[in-house]
Amino acid sequence: MNKKINKPQQEISLQKLQEKVHHLTDELSAIKQQLQQGVEREKVGADVERQGAVREKLGADREKQGADREKIAEEEIHIRTKAMESTFDGIFIIDAKKPNFPIVYANTSFYNLTGYSKKEVIGQNYFLLYGLNKNSHIYEEIKRALSEGRSFHGEMLNFKKNGEKFWSLLRITLVRDKNGTVTHYVGNKTDTTLMKQRNLEIEEQREELLHVTRVGKLAEFVSSLAHEISQPLTAILSYAQAAQRMLKDREPKLQEILQYIVNDDQRAAEVIKRMRYLLKKSKPTLEALNFNIIITDTVALILPQITAKGKAVKYELDANLPLIYGDRIQLQQVVLNLISNSLEAMEDNKDSHDLIIRTSRKDSDTILVQVKDSGSGILPEHMNKLFTHFFTSKPDGLGMGLSISRSIVEAHGGHLDAVNNPDRGATFYFTLPVDKKKD
Amino acid sequence: MENSIIYVVDDDESVCRSVGLLLKAHGYKVQTFTCAADFLAFKHPKVLSCLILDIRIPHINGFALQELMAEQGILTPVIFISGYGNIPMSVKAMKAGAIDFLPKPFTSKELLNAITNALSKSKVQNKTQAEIAKIRERIKTLSPRELEVFHFVAQGMMNKNIASKRGTSLQTIKVHRGRVMQKMQAKTVTELIGFAKIAGITPSTK
Question: pTM of whole model > 0.80?
Answer without folding.
Answer: no
